[in-house]
Design a protein that fits this description.
- InterPro entries: DUF72, UPF0759_sf.
- It comes from Micromonospora rubida.
- This protein is an alpha/beta fold and about 280 residues long.
- It folds into two domains: about 150 residues, Protein of unknown function UPF0759 (TIM Barrel, Alpha-Beta Barrel), CATH 3.20.20; about 120 residues, no CATH class.
- About 40% of the residues lie in helices and about 10% in strands.
- It has eleven helices and eight strands.
- Strands 1-2-3-4-5 form a five-stranded parallel β-sheet, covered by helices on one side. A three-stranded parallel β-sheet has the order 6-7-8.
- Helix 2 links the parallel strand 1 and strand 2.
- It is globular, with a radius of gyration of 18 Å.
C-alpha cells in the first residue's frame, strides 16, 4: 500500500503520476506490504515499474493471490502460482518474502496440505506464513506442528499483533470497522528464521499505538543483536499516519542499536504535526 488517500498532499506529493507514487513512498519507508496482489496478479510491466521506482534493497512482502490461499486452499493451484511467480520476477532481490496468508478456517488438520505446498515452492524465494486459526496460538501441539512444517522449507511465521487494538473498545469509525474484521489472536514474538516479519495494528490515537509497540522494541533489539534482519509493518485502523509512525518505531529501535541503518530522507509534501 503506497497510494493511501490520506497521505496525498500531506505526506506524499499530490498529484503524482502512477509511476512515481511508490518512489515517493520509498522515501518514507524501505518496505511495503503487497496487499493488492491478494486480489489480482499484477502484470509484469506493472511489477517492472515497481522495481524501477525502488532501490535493490527495498523490501516487498507480497501476498499470494486469494485464488491460491483462500479459494483453492493451496490445492490444485500450481498454474496460478506459476503465473504469479512469473509476474513478480522483475522485482529480483526486492521480493523479500512471499506472504502466504491463510483463512481463519485453515487449522491444524490442514498443516499437511501446507507442508506439501511449501515443499513444491521454488527455492528462489523466501516464504512467510500468516495463520489465524486459534488452535495455533492456544494449543502448543498445534503450534509445534506448524513450526515443524515451516522449518522444513525455512519459512517464517508472521505474527499479526492486534492485542493493543483490542485492549479497549473502538472510538472512531475506522476503529469500529476494523473491530469486526481484524483477527483476535494472542501475542507471539518467536522468530523461526533470520528474517522475521511482524504486522502490528495500533489505534488511531498515535500515543496508544506507540504505547502498544514498546515490547516490540525489545524484541527487535534482541533480534538485531542476534544477527537477524526483521521487517515490522505498522498499521492503524485509518492508516493516516502509518508512515510517520513506522519511522518513529525505527528511530526508537535505532536509539538502542545505533549501528542500524537510518531510513531514507522523505520528500515531504507539507508540514508534519504528529510529534
Amino acid at each position: 500500500m503506497w497510494t493511501h488517500k490520506a497521505w496525498q498532499g500531506r505526506l506524499l506529493a499530490h498529484p503524482l503520476a502512477s509511476h512515481e507514487r511508490l518512489r515517493h513512498y520509498a522515501g518514507w519507508c524501505d518496505a511495503v506490504e503487497g496487499n493488492t496482489t491478494f486480489y489480482a496478479t499484477p502484470t509484469r510491466d506493472t511489477v517492472a515499474s515497481w522495481a524501477q521506482q525502488t532501490d535493490p534493497d527495498f523490501r516487498f512482502v507480497l501476498k499470494l493471490p486469494k485464488l491460491i490461499t483462500h479459494e483453492r486452499r493451496l490445492v490444485d493451484a500450481d498454474g496460478a502460482l506459476r503465473v504469479f511467480l512469473d509476474a513478480i520476477e522483475p522485482l529480483g532481490p526486492r521480493a523479500h518474502a512471499l506472504w502466504i496468508q491463510l483463512p481463519g478456517s485453515f487449522g491444524p488438520a490442514d498443516v499437511a496440505v501446507l507442508a506439501s505446498f511449501l515443499r513444491r515452492l521454488p527455492s528462489s524465494h523466501r516464504y512467510a506464513v500468516e495463520v489465524r486459526h486459534p488452535a495455533f496460538f492456544d494449543e502448543p501441539r498445534s503450534a509445534a506442528l506448524l513450526e515443524e512444517a515451516l522449518a522444513v522449507t525455512g519459512a517464517e511465521w508472521i505474527p499479526f499483533d492486534t492485542t493493543e487494538f483490542f485492549r479497549s473498545p473502538p472510538t472512531s469509525e475506522a476503529e469500529r470497522e476494523a473491530w469486526t474484521r481484524k483477527p483476535r489472536v494472542p501475542f507471539r514474538s518467536r522468530a523461526l528464521t533470520d528474517r522475521p516479519i511482524v504486522r502490528y495494528l495500533g489505534r488511531d490515537d498515535p500515543a496508544r499505538t506507540i504505547e502498544g509497540w514498546q515490547r516490540w522494541i525489545d524484541v527487535a533489539v534482541e533480534w538485531l543483536r542476534e544477527g537477524r534482519s526483521p521487517t515490522i509493518f505498522v498499521h492503524t485502523p485509518d492508516n493516516a499516519d502509518a508512515p510517520v509512525l513506522a519511522r518513529r518505531l525505527h528511530d526508537d529501535v535505532r536509539a538502542r542499536v545505533p549501528e542500524l541503518e537510518a531510513l531514507p530522507d522523505p520528500m515531504p509534501a507539507g508540514p508534519l504535526t504528529l510529534f
